Amino acid sequence: MTTAQPYGSLRERLRGIPGVVMLIGAPDTGKTTLARLLLNDAVESGMTGAFVDGDVAAATVGPPTCVGLKWVKSEEDFADLGQADELRFVGSTEPQGVVLPHVVAAASLIDVARGSAEFIVLDTTGVVSGVVGQTLKYHLMELCQPSLVVALHRGEELEPIVGMLRRFLSARVAMAEPLPELVPLSPVERFESRQAAFADALSEPMQRWRVQTTVFAPTLPEEFDRSRLEAMLVGVLDDHGRCLGLGVLEVNEGVVKVVTSHGEAMRGLRLGSMRVDLETFETQRVRLRQLIFGV
Description:
The chain has a 7-stranded mixed sheet, with helices on both faces. Strands 8, 9, 10, 11, 12, 13 and 14 form a 7-stranded mixed sheet that branches. The termini are far apart. 29% of the residues lie in helices and 26% in strands. It is built from 7 helices and 14 strands. It has helices at 7-14, 31-44, 99-114, 130-144, 159-169, 187-201, 288-293; strands spanning 19-25, 49-53, 66-72, 86-89, 119-123, 148-152, 173-176, 207-211, 216-217, 232-237, 243-252, 255-260, 268-276, 283-285. Helix 3 packs parallel to helix 4 (130-144) and helix 4 packs parallel to helix 5 (159-169). The chain is α/β, with parallel strands linked by helices. The longest helix has 16 residues, at 99-114.
């Protein structure tokens, strides 16, 4: 494997060069930090930047479970990086079971970004091992077609993915060292951070909107037991299929309501693969097939 290079030399190599850069690496390797630095360099070079944040578990742009797009046209945009300009709903903080919607969401926003930005950074989830991690990165590379993949690695953890991307997709990959001063989050800190992010995304002012089962995607069978929808996370969509934000379902005596702050422009709901407790903001993974068909 190619020798890793420090952040500084990588930034100099990319400064002023347009294109799409995809970042891969395990949690706590500094992907988001590097994304900010590269986008800052692009703005200083006079280019329009865009940040497509595909790290649905530890989102910087927008809420968890979504891929977010943020235009970065000036230094002032960094102060409000969490406020997404566009969202696509994936429905889970883990890639298992949602590889297809995850890849489609990221590719869709890369296409949007290419229309107006000269330099685009695509951040990715920290799942880098096993079949799911490799499959997700493979298809992100295949559909988003970045000009360069930056792999932030410790030891040999990324060798299988990097080898695969180079072998099958002729990917240009630059190996980079994680920042030495990065302090890894503990599992408790990561859990609490995710809770806080859901709390922020589902904060007041929230309203309850009665909805029919015909507004859901995927479509629910006629004999579906509506009580199964209790506490399910949903993406609230407008009439162009764009995600406005998150909502959570409530069911009382067969009446389904969505709790959200995006009801005014709501045209449909995408079912997620999680339940969210609106009091504690703890989450539970759900298999959609099991939810809908009971198998």
